[in-house]
């Protein structure tokens, strides 16, 4: 089965083709970063309009790259949620319409299930079961994964997601949009010993996260730096490094705790923040130190992309799941609501 996947949950337009016989045959992503940079964040209406302009050309592009035509596609997968409702409507309407026109089945994919399964596209891929850390601008969740569709939420952020905290702290430091990658680049120049930020909620049992306080701590530290008269680039870099270290350490502590709590040894990291180099390095060391192993998707598959949607859709279409013509985008959607695969 060859599945065309469409991702339009936020501000990236992603299209890909995955098949039994071809693997990941082709994938392309168009980022709207330049459009939203002027506003310092994603403007939902602009995101929707740009998806309308870009999705169909990207579909033609990946079909050409894979050397396939419409008659070679056996199924359509599109992101049905969670995400921005206008953006979801674009991909859902187009994906479901193409499936009807091409007379192939369609499936609405959970965006976070796509992220969760993305590391399975790599070699080596993790075996089930495992614990997954889904860490992005909109989510920070620890999930126990027994199989595709068999998910148990272990803990999540009670306020800001890790990626959201990165972006907000970057804005405090006056960094350009998108803030998270800009902060990580600045942190490379920082002195890790100058400031010590708290590691929130690590001094108590449980697997919940809280990152909003780190943003406030960074703001107060910046005010102290400015009032001291040392309003320097190095000072900003030192704050960025302290913030990044605090987030990374918090994620590492909670992931180790999740593995010990579940009795599992495999950890999967996915989502945009999983591309962070410091997080990958420290997580790998920490998990190997307790006899486990950490798995990551390649950086191009950490951010939103069509490959993860095509792959997740392929699993469900192969299992016989289908969407009716009356599709339903879901801006809010829990992973635990997903149906397990038959058999």
Second rung of CATH, namely the architecture of the largest domain: 2-Layer Sandwich
Report the mean per-residue pLDDT as an integer: 96
Report the helical percentage.
40-55%
CATH homology-level superfamily of the largest domain:
ATPase, nucleotide binding domain
Q: Helices and strands: which structural class?
A: alpha/beta
- Briefly note the CATH topology name of the largest domain: Nucleotidyltransferase, domain 5
Enzyme class: transferase
Pfam families: TsaD
Family: Belongs to the KAE1 / TsaD family.
EC number: 2.3.1.234
Question: How would you characterize the overall build of this protein?
Answer:
42% of the residues lie in helices and 19% in strands. The protein has 343 residues and is of the alpha/beta class. It has 2 domains: 2-117 and 301-337, ATPase, nucleotide binding domain (Nucleotidyltransferase, domain 5); 125-296, Nucleotidyltransferase, domain 5 (2-Layer Sandwich), CATH 3.30.420.40. A 5-stranded mixed sheet has the order 3-2-1-4-5, sandwiched between helices. The chain has a 5-stranded mixed sheet with strand order 8-7-6-9-10, sandwiched between helices. Helix 2 (44-66) packs parallel to helix 3 (85-102), helix 5 (162-172) packs parallel to helix 7 (212-227) and helix 6 crosses helix 8. It is globular, with a radius of gyration of 20 Å. The model has no long low-confidence stretch (mean pLDDT 96). InterPro entries: ATPase_NBD, Gcp-like_dom, KAE1/TsaD, Peptidase_M22_CS, TsaD. One of its GO terms (cellular component) is cytoplasm. Fe cation binds at residues 111, 115, 304. Substrate binds at residues 134-138, 167, 180, 276.
């Amino acid at each position: 089965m060859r599945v065309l996947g469409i991702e339009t949950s936020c501000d990236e337009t992603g299209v890909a083709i995955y098949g039994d016989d071809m693997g990941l045959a082709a994938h392309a992503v168009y980022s709207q970063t330049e459009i939203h940079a002027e506003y310092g964040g994603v403007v939902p209406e602009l995101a929707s309009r740009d998806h309308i302009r870009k999705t169909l050309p990207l579909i033609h592009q990946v079909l050409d790259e894979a050397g396939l035509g419409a008659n070679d596609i056996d199924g359509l997968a599109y992101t049905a949620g969670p995400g921005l409702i206008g953006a979801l409507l674009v991909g859902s309407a187009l994906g479901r319409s193409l499936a009807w026109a091409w007379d192939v089945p369609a499936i609405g994919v959970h965006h976070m299930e796509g992220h969760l399964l993305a590391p399975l596209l790599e070699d080596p891929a993790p075996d089930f079961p495992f614990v997954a850390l889904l860490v992005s601008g909109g989510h920070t969740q620890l999930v126990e994964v027994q199989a595709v569709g068999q998910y148990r939420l272990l803990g999540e952020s009670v306020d800001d997601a890790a990626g959201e905290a990165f972006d907000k702290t970057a804005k405090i430091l006056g960094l350009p949009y998108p803030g998270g990658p800009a902060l990580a680049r600045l942190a490379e120049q920082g002195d890790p010993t100058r400031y010590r930020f708290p590691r929130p909620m690590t001094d108590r049992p449980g697997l919940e996260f809280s990152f909003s306080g780190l943003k406030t701590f960074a703001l107060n530290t910046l005010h102290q730096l400015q009032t001291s008269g040392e309003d320097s680039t190095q000072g900003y870099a030192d704050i960025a490094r302290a913030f990044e270290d605090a987030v990374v350490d918090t994620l590492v502590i909670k992931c180790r705790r999740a593995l010990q709590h579940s009795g599992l040894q495999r950890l999967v990291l996915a989502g945009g923040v999983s591309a962070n180099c410091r997080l990958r390095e420290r997580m790998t060391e920490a998990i190997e130190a307790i006899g486990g192993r950490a798995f990551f998707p390649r950086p191009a598959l950490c951010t939103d992309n069509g490959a993860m949607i095509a792959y997740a859709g392929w699993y469900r279409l192969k299992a016989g799941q289908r969407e009716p013509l009356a599709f339903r985008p879901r801006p809010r959607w829990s992973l635990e609501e997903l149906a397990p695969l038959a058999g």
